[in-house]
Design a protein that fits this description.
Blueprint (H helix, E strand, L loop, with lengths): L8 E3 L2 E3 L3 E3 L21 E3 L16 E4 L2 E4 L8 H8 L9 E5 L4 H11 L5 E7 L11 H4 L1 H14 L4 E4 L7 H10 L4 E4 L3 E3 L2 E2 L4 E2 L6 E4 L4 H14 L4 E4 L5 H9 L4 E4 L2 H4 L3 H15 L20
Parallel strand pairs: 3-4, 3-16, 4-7, 7-8, 8-9, 9-10, 10-15, 15-16
Antiparallel strand pairs: 1-2, 5-6, 6-14, 11-14, 12-13
The protein binds flavin mononucleotide.
Length: about 300
């Protein structure tokens, strides 16, 4: 007999019908994927990071394939916060939790984007991108220096009463310290990981594979690193962690739940298969049913230590 599974989870005050969101920058503004599946079959979406003004991003080449992964230096191309509110958000279905992702080059500008987004109908929350590894100013520094991160969280918290998630960088020595700073400054949750700073070489020209030089590595290659960081962060704080990094299947996602993530985001997989997020959600449900879990939320944090026998 198969068990009926309750897939609902609560992510920092947001009710999700299942624990699968799409990761910022890999799912456009959401409506681009509406031809492939009914968007309300997934838990929610995190839209492309927004800045105050529109940005065209870096010059190509800005994407390259790597073993079991993808290197990118898009450089935060986006339509800008005002066009998002006027043209993109209205296209999304009612009832679908949408998180807007916020990126800027200084803290006042981050706070201003948050203010403009606050009060927008349909927005369930904000995700502060404190971790972009390949923009010339701002970007990764916010997620690497704990005092700067704390100030960023404090000011964005002050700017909006929407549920606030901070997306952290994996390019740090101790993720627990960063997670604790977010919790102390009033964040409702943590998303991790963003891409790992990386480099590849085009041997025909002996130039970097990307015009930007450095890029961010994503995809299955980074999954074990992401699992380690999600596990460490979820041990360090009480606020929920949203796990991201190389999730291709429902079983990949279950590993993140077991390591302490309350929900997950699917990123690079969307480039290979536009149905990836739905298939991941179905796969989580199947795993829960097959292993006798009546609620998906019961899987969270169930990593079992070995008994110490020596
Ligand atoms: C092409 C591309 C663009 C991305 N753009 C953003 C972005 O705008 N904001 C952000 O916070 N993360 C961005 N990311 C990072 C992803 O949201 C995600 O954290 C990362 O890719 C790891 O997950 P994955 O291995 O499932 O892709 C981007 C990733 C890729 C591959």
């Amino acid at each position: 007999m198969t068990v009926a599974v309750d897939t609902e989870v609560n992510l920092g005050g947001i009710t999700l019908r299942n624990p699968v969101l799409t990761a910022s920058g890999t799912f456009g503004y959401g409506s681009e994927f509406a031809p492939f599946f009914a968007l309300d079959r997934i838990g929610g979406i995190v839209a492309k990071s927004l800045t105050l003004e529109p940005r065209s991003g870096n010059l190509p080449p800005r994407i390259a394939e790597t073993p079991a992964g993808m290197l990118n230096a898009i450089g935060l191309e986006n339509v800008g916060v005002d066009a998002f509110l006027a043209e993109k958000l209205p296209l999304l279905p009612e009832g679908l939790p949408v998180l807007a992702s916020v990126f800027e080059t200084d803290i006042d500008r981050y706070a201003e984007v948050c203010k403009r987004l606050s009060g927008a109908p349909k927005l369930a929350g904000l995700e502060i991108n404190a971790s972009c590894p390949h923009v010339k100013s701002g970007g990764i520094e916010f997620g690497q220096r704990v005092e700067l991160l704390a100030r960023l969280v404090r000011e964005t918290r002050r700017a909006s009463s929407l549920p606030l998630f901070i997306k952290l960088s994996p390019n740090v020595t101790d993720i627990r310290e960063m997670a604790r700073a977010c919790e102390a400054e009033g964040a409702d949750g943590i998303s991790l990981i963003n891409t790992l700073q990386a480099l590849d070489v085009d041997l025909a020209t002996r130039r970097p594979a990307l015009r930007n030089g450095l890029g961010g590595l994503s995809g299955p290659a980074i999954r074990p690193v992401a699992l380690r960081m999600v596990w460490q962060a979820s041990q360090a704080v009480k606020i929920p962690v949203c796990g991201i990094g190389g999730i291709m299947t429902g079983e990949d996602a279950v590993k993140f739940l077991v390591c302490g993530a309350t929900a997950v985001q699917v990123g690079t997989a969307n480039y290979l298969n536009p149905m990836a997020a739905v298939e991941v959600a179905d796969g989580i449900e199947r795993y829960a049913a097959a292993h006798g879990f009546a609620r998906v939320s019961e899987l969270v944090g169930t990593l079992r230590p070995y008994a110490s026998s020596r």
